[in-house]
TrEMBL record:
<keyword id="KW-0963">Cytoplasm</keyword>
<protein>
    <recommendedName>
        <fullName>ATP-dependent Clp protease proteolytic subunit</fullName>
    </recommendedName>
</protein>
<keyword id="KW-0378">Hydrolase</keyword>
<dbReference type="InterPro" id="IPR001907">
    <property type="entry name" value="ClpP"/>
</dbReference>
<dbReference type="GO" id="GO:0006508">
    <property type="term" value="P:proteolysis"/>
</dbReference>
<dbReference type="InterPro" id="IPR029045">
    <property type="entry name" value="ClpP/crotonase-like_dom_sf"/>
</dbReference>
<dbReference type="GO" id="GO:0008233">
    <property type="term" value="F:peptidase activity"/>
</dbReference>
<keyword id="KW-0720">Serine protease</keyword>
<keyword id="KW-0645">Protease</keyword>
<feature type="region of interest" description="Disordered">
    <location>
        <begin position="325"/>
        <end position="349"/>
    </location>
</feature>
<dbReference type="Pfam" id="PF00574">
    <property type="entry name" value="CLP_protease"/>
</dbReference>
<dbReference type="InterPro" id="IPR023562">
    <property type="entry name" value="ClpP/TepA"/>
</dbReference>
<comment type="similarity">
    <text>Belongs to the peptidase S14 family.</text>
</comment>
Length: 370
């Protein structure tokens, strides 16, 4: 499956970047999907490049709750300074993504539209299957209500009562701001939104967005917003994605640099994937190095213990030699006549003390008495 051009615009000098969520969330409706996995990988790469601020621009009818929740939670948990922008339409899951940024970091174009409603799906089966599906959807409604609750300061119950009544709630930029979901900014986006969108059913809006999705031979749904100021970029947007090459991106980059915008990079999706794969490989190698260092430290500790044991064994051997020398010393004195100690075969002379001599004299004197 060919993927369309994936435009990543980052400004290294200002440590900022932009991500455009232009299309349907999830990989079910299009072969150029806006998935949670892709979004998280984008944030990881940008963070690795030293980017600190990311502006997420939204023009989406919504889509998959599963991918949408992944994007929402990635925004809420990210260490990056993430701002969300409703460039035209933030409907359904798109409005939840809009409300995922922190207070003061949610923005609205003056003519934008926001839409909130209950989750929906398609079910098949018996009455119990239908009931299980209904309960399943209510769980998602509660979870989704939490994002709007966090943004507005209202309770989950208040949000559910206001917006999760199985109707589509279309809000102008001013109404969206009044509910506390985001702040209207003095900018007008080039994102196209039907003039009568608030009078259209959500199904019709979804069908309209789906029909406008690019195919493999059309421009991307993620990020190719151009202005008259950048003629080369505008021309590039009309080129079939399948025919785009790195050489065609070079004059675009030169045009951007000529405008004094430093640190901006435009890359193909394949190049981005290569960068992300390299980053993942580096991360894996770094983890392996940590493991190897831990093993090396353990080996070093064991070697020290072995050396210590060897030293103790040497000391023990030396002490044993000394003990053996004392036991078998041929010069040790003999205390019995039967002692087989080598010598000249003569008894050693007795050693008499003064008292012994005196007693011998007394005995001798008594021996003289008849």
């Amino acid at each position: 499956m060919k993927k369309p051009l994936h435009l990543v615009v980052s400004n290294a000098a200002e440590k900022s970047a932009k991500i455009y969520l232009y299309g349907i969330i999830g990989d079910y409706w299009t072969d150029s999907p806006l998935t949670a996995d892709r979004f998280v990988r984008e944030l990881t790469v940008l963070e690795g490049k030293g980017i600190s601020r990311v502006d997420v621009h939204i023009n989406s009818v919504g889509g998959s709750v599963f991918d949408g929740l992944g994007i929402c939670n990635a925004i809420k948990s990210s260490k990056l300074d993430i701002h969300t922008w409703n460039d035209g339409l933030a409907a359904s899951m798109g409005s939840a993504i809009l409300c995922s940024a922190k207070t003061g970091k949610r923005h609205l174009a003056k003519q934008s539209v926001t839409m909130i409603h209950s989750a929906s799906t398609i079910a098949w089966g018996n009455s119990q299957d239908m009931q299980d599906t209904a309960d399943y959807l209510k769980t998602f409604d509660t979870v989704l209500a939490g994002f709007y609750s966090d943004a507005s300061g209202k309770t989950v119950e208040e949000i559910q009562k206001q917006f999760f009544d199985y109707k589509d709630h279309w809000l102008s930029a001013q109404e969206t701001e009044a509910f506390g979901f985001a702040t209207v900014e003095d900018y007008e986006s080039e994102a196209e939104v039907p003039e009568n969108i608030t009078n259209m059913s959500f199904d019709k809006v979804a069908a309209l967005y789906k029909s406008n999705l690019p195919t493999n031979s059309q421009k991307t749904d993620m990020g190719l917003l151009t202005t008259n100021k950048f003629k080369t970029l505008s021309a590039l947007a009309k080129v079939a994605v399948a025919d785009l090459t790195a050489d065609q991106l070079k004059p675009v980059q030169e045009e951007i640099e000529a405008e004094g915008i430093k640190g901006v990079s435009i890359v193909l999706d394949a190049d981005l994937k290569e960068t992300m794969d390299a980053a993942a490989k580096v991360e894996g190698l770094e983890a392996e190095i940590v493991t190897l260092k831990a093993s090396a430290d353990k080996v070093t500790g064991l070697e020290a213990q072995v050396a210590k044991i060897a030293g103790l064994e040497a000391t023990i051997a030396e002490q044993k030699k000394k003990l053996d020398a004392v036991v078998t010393d041929p010069t040790a004195p003999s205390t019995e006549e039967t002692d087989e100690t080598p010598g000249d075969g003569k008894k050693d002379e007795e050693v008499l003390t003064a008292m012994d001599k005196e007693m011998n004299s007394i005995n001798a004197l008594f021996n003289l008495i008849p």
